[in-house]
Amino acid sequence: MQERNALYQVTPEERKKLITGLKQRWQTLYRQYQTLSIMVDTQPKVNKKLLLENELNMLEHDIEFLERFDTILVGS
């Protein structure tokens, strides 16, 4: 019987793949962000801009977290 609160350590290869994937996603979203019009004069434009900014901020936070720590434990 496996322990309920077992922890799994992310391997360096998995960590590197996670960071690479997050950076690629950030670049994709940032390209979309750059194509937004400068004048956000309608609610859909405002919503799209805010959504992209929030996603970019979350990705930046996750990337910084993964780069800061060499050992990462995940609960199963």
From TrEMBL:
<protein>
    <recommendedName>
        <fullName>Enkurin domain-containing protein</fullName>
    </recommendedName>
</protein>
<feature type="domain" description="Enkurin">
    <location>
        <begin position="1"/>
        <end position="74"/>
    </location>
</feature>
<dbReference type="GO" id="GO:0005856">
    <property type="term" value="C:cytoskeleton"/>
</dbReference>
<dbReference type="GO" id="GO:0005929">
    <property type="term" value="C:cilium"/>
</dbReference>
<dbReference type="GO" id="GO:0005516">
    <property type="term" value="F:calmodulin binding"/>
</dbReference>
<keyword id="KW-0966">Cell projection</keyword>
<keyword id="KW-0963">Cytoplasm</keyword>
<dbReference type="InterPro" id="IPR027012">
    <property type="entry name" value="Enkurin_dom"/>
</dbReference>
<dbReference type="Pfam" id="PF13864">
    <property type="entry name" value="Enkurin"/>
</dbReference>
<dbReference type="InterPro" id="IPR052102">
    <property type="entry name" value="Enkurin_domain-protein"/>
</dbReference>
<keyword id="KW-0206">Cytoskeleton</keyword>
